[in-house]
Amino acid sequence: MTSLVSIIVPAYNLEKHLTKCLNSILRQTYQNLEIIVVNDGSIDKTKKIIDDFAKKDQRIKPLHQKNQGLSMARNNGIKVASGEYISLVDGDDTVAPNFIEELMQHIAASKDIDIAACGYQTIYPNQSKDTRVPNEILSGTEATTKCLIEQEDYSVLAWNKLYRCNLFKNINYPPNQVHEDNLTTYKLLAKAKKVAYFDAPLYHYYKRKGSITDRTKLLPHLKIKEQAAIEAKAYFKNHPRLFQAADIALLLAKFAYLDNIIKGKLSKDELYHDSLNFIIKNTAHYRKNPLLTKKLKLYLGLVNTKNAFAYHLFRKIV
Are residues 208 and 221 in the same domain? Predict the structure, then answer.
């Protein structure tokens, strides 16, 4: 395939990392690229780095804006993209030379594949870890169901994927949100006819001190999961299968509160009682959900003991 691929690169105060990121993109074996680098109101040398790269390679298109955050940087880059496919690469990460080529080859495997997703490598200051994914092709409904219920990072993340551009019609990343992927990716998966996953870790995600995920506390992260489930239920109100999957995601969010409180990672406040009461009150409802897993059936039974004693004991042992 020789279709144009638009790579959107948000960049905010990344003078220490952006050069490495852009060089990795320019080294792609797939050459038909449009590289939209969105300078999100940086106050360091990021703007100069982008402009200097643009002078050297006409495929790089600078987009300078006032600081609006990661989501709006992505949204604005997508708006001006002219490629048939879109990739989202964060400005402090890098990609393997064959990142786009491999993704394009998997999309080319079938005319119905709208999203291709690869594995990724998390690079810490002193080590790295590969996250590989199952090699499979799923329908959009299957991929969305799996994303909502299993909640694996490789399904949720925005940046390990190549998307057909028209999927983004009427779908935006929500501004001023941490973990905006959780609130968006399921919508894109649901619009896709098919989604292809393959295990090669071609995206290199750098976990640094001071990154968005490092600054995020546990409680806001859990609240985003709950918010995503609630929004997904509303989004899929006319799609029974995906509504059921979103309902399971909400149950998982409630269990996540309980688990982290039992483990001592969160204080035992009103969240504990709200979550416990929600689970007990809705146990009969969830037992009718055809997507309820055997593990969750067990958890529901353990919670519905006096003071959820059996569940507390189980969580402290396991």
Answer: no
CA-wise closest residue to 72 among 49, 34, 39: 39
Query: Mean per-residue pLDDT for 300-315?
Result: 95
As beta bridge partners, residue 205 has: 122
- Contact predicate 102/77, CB 8 Å: no
- Please report the pLDDT score of residue 214 as a whole number: 44
Mean pLDDT of 69-92: 98
CB 250 within 8 A of CB 148: no
Alpha-carbon span 93 to 203, nearest angstrom? 8
Closest Cα partner for 262 from 293, 299, 292, 296?
299
Partners of residue 35 on adjacent β-strands: 7, 60
Enumerate residues 6+ apart whose C-beta is below 8 A from 153.
131
In CATH, what number is assigned to the domain containing residue 152? 3.90.550.10
Give phi and psi for 28, each to the nearest 5. Answer: -60, 140
pLDDT in tens, 247-262: 999 999 999 999 999 9
Strands (E), the chain: 5-11, 33-40, 60-65, 85-88, 94-95, 113-123, 128-131, 136-139, 161-164, 194-206
Same domain, yes or no: 101 and 249: no
Terminal-to-terminal C-alpha distance of the chain:
49
Mean of the pLDDT values across residues 15-20? 97
Number of domains in the chain: 2
The CB density around residue 47, as the number of other CB atoms within 10 Å, is: 17
Which residues are CB-neighbours of 105 under 8 A, at least 6 positions away?
A: 1
Higher pLDDT, 71 or 317: 71
Q: Which amino acid is at 47?
A: K
pLDDT score of 245? 98
